[in-house]
Amino acid sequence: xxxxxxxxxxxxxxxxxxxxxxxxxxxxxxxxxxxxxxxxxxxxxxxxxxxxxxxxxxxxxxxxxxxxxxxxxxxxxxxxxxxxxxxxxxxxxxxxxxxxxxxxxxxxxxxxxxxxxxxxxxxxxxxxxxxxxxxxxxxxxxxxxxxxxxxxxxxxxxxxxxxxxxxxxxxxxxxxxxxxxxxxxxxxxxxxxxxxxxxxxxxxxxxxxxxxxxxxxxxxxxxxxxxxxxxx
Length: 232
Fold this sequence. Notes:
This protein is mainly α. Among the domains are: 75-149; 150-232. It is built from 10 helices and no strands. Helix 4 (114-125) runs antiparallel to helix 5 (132-146), helix 6 runs antiparallel to helix 7 and helix 7 packs antiparallel against helix 8 (187-199). The longest helix is centred in the N-terminal third of the chain and has 71 residues, at 5-75.
């Protein structure tokens, strides 16, 4: 019995469907295990990533808490636990590591071990893995401890790039540079620098007060005008 066009078309669709099913079955038999393996591997990797995120966050919080305790002890005039402080100087987070190194060097300086403190600050200042503000602060503190043994020009050469308005450590660096200028009898450079620090609201108040007094002694007006003060 001959097939009508409609029956022939239906028959061909059934054949195509059977062929596709057969191809799919063959494909699954050949590659099914690999597909399942890849899916499982992907799920394991995703789970591992979630765990790592949680672990990293937990570790960061733990380091932060320890850092807070160490800083509180140091600020209160106490001596942080040496082992805990050493562990923090090896922290994977650069900010915590730099803070711990600063505390360690500061503790040595407070105990009168200037040699160890200077060595620590010097190492920090040359450590390219630390952010520049930490390195700059370490250089300033190193120079503060070495100030009496350095030639004034050495102080200027070291810190002049930091003793500029707008720089993070303008007050601390500027004060040392201005004093070095005075020792070199360059009051024409020291006076304006003191005045600039006195007028800069970003400089700590203690430094501003000293700078205002020094500028006045050197004959430079460091008093803020009402308009200038209001604009800041």
